[in-house]
């Protein structure tokens, strides 16, 4: 594919302003290769998403997102169905979507992936709520404890990057609570007191926390990780298990159950928050479904290992 024009969606909020800087760096690199470039910066993220949708339905050859997982999600929502390929120029705190596709985190290397022109189809997930609202996601949908961690991390000004989610998780452990969940994954059901239920299209969230370590963006399925509440000493037990999430070994613990399917339905009492790609979008009950081969994304021709 010959790229003559690229539109870059820049998030001024990603990594405390890094998104806009990265967008301009990427634009300079593309222009040096005779690619015409427009940079989109909305008044807010909703405005940026609207502009991205219009650009995707215009004459641009590629819609590139300079931001993190949340920016990617909004751009995907706005451009889905346009048929335009997407590119990712990582500039967020976690960058888990890029990590799972083997896209380099360095700006120059990510731009080279675009110039090389290799694309692949990628699955998405969709969450739908009883009131008719829905949201697409590229990485992980979190409910319960991990959604509460996301809510706390969003409000934290320090530290930056992965450490912010780690500290938020440790703080949430102090006020740990479980909920009674009813879980359906295709035709299989589980009813239990859970600390959280995570639904993964990718292996990780929060900058490499491998919550659904066997998930794949190309299998047409969602992976589910359920963390059961131990009868006693919940906080010390989870505090010991939690660090294993960075290697994916937490799924070997007796308190953790994994499932896989095309459709996941969750109810819980009391209701739990739902976050997707690091954005809070509602609360349970909800239905989560895989959307196979929903978009095409520029990726390395030979995918690099996912950074740990």
TrEMBL record:
Lineage per the UniProt record: Bacteria, Bacillati, Actinomycetota, Actinomycetes, Mycobacteriales
Descriptive protein name: YegS/Rv2252/BmrU family lipid kinase
GO molecular function per UniProt: kinase activity
Organism in which the protein naturally occurs: Gordonia westfalica
This protein's UniProt keywords: ATP-binding, Kinase, Lipid biosynthesis, Lipid metabolism, Magnesium, Metal-binding, Nucleotide-binding, Phospholipid biosynthesis, Phospholipid metabolism, Transferase
SUPFAM superfamilies, per database record: NAD kinase/diacylglycerol kinase-like (SSF111331)
Pfam families for this protein: DAGK_cat (PF00781), YegS_C (PF19279)
InterPro entries xref list: ATP-NAD_kinase_N (IPR017438), Diacylglycerol/lipid_kinase (IPR005218), Diacylglycerol_kinase_cat_dom (IPR001206), Lipid_Phosphate_FormReg (IPR050187), NAD/diacylglycerol_kinase_sf (IPR016064), YegS/DAGK_C (IPR045540)
Similarity annotation: Belongs to the diacylglycerol/lipid kinase family.
Cofactor(s) required, per the database record: Mg(2+)
Domain (DAGKc): residue spans on this chain: 1-131
Domain of life assignment: Bacteria
């Amino acid at each position: 594919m010959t790229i003559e024009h690229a539109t870059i969606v820049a998030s001024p909020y990603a990594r405390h302003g890094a998104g806009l800087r990265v967008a301009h760096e990427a634009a300079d690199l593309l222009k040096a290769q005779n690619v015409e470039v427009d940079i989109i910066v909305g008044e807010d993220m909703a405005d940026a998403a609207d502009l991205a949708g219009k650009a995707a339905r215009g004459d641009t050859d590629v819609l590139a997102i300079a931001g993190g997982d949340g920016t990617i999600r909004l751009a995907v929502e706005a451009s889905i169905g346009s048929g335009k390929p997407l590119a990712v120029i990582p500039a967020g705190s976690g960058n888990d979507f890029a990590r799972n596709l083997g896209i380099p985190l360095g700006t120059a290397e990510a731009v080279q992936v675009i110039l090389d022109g290799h694309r692949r189809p990628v699955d998405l997930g969709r969450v739908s709520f009883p009131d008719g609202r829905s949201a697409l996601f590229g990485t992980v949908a979190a409910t319960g404890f991990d959604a509460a961690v996301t809510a706390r991390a969003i409000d934290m000004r320090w530290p930056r990057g992965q450490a912010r989610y780690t500290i938020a998780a440790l703080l949430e452990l102090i006020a740990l609570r479980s909920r009674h969940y009813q879980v359906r994954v295709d035709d299989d059901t589980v009813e239990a007191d859970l600390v959280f239920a995570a639904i993964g299209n990718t292996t990780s969230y929060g900058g490499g926390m491998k919550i659904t370590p066997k998930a794949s963006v190309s299998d047409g399925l969602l992976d589910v990780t359920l963390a059961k509440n131990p009868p006693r000493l919940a906080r010390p037990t989870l505090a010991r298990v939690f660090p294993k999430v960075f290697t994916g070994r937490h799924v070997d613990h007796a308190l953790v159950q994994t499932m896989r399917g095309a459709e996941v339905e969750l109810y819980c009492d009391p209701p739990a928050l739902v976050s997707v790609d690091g954005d809070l979008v509602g609360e349970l009950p909800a239905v989560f479904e895989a959307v196979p081969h929903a978009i095409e994304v520029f990726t390395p021709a030979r995918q690099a290992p996912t950074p740990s």
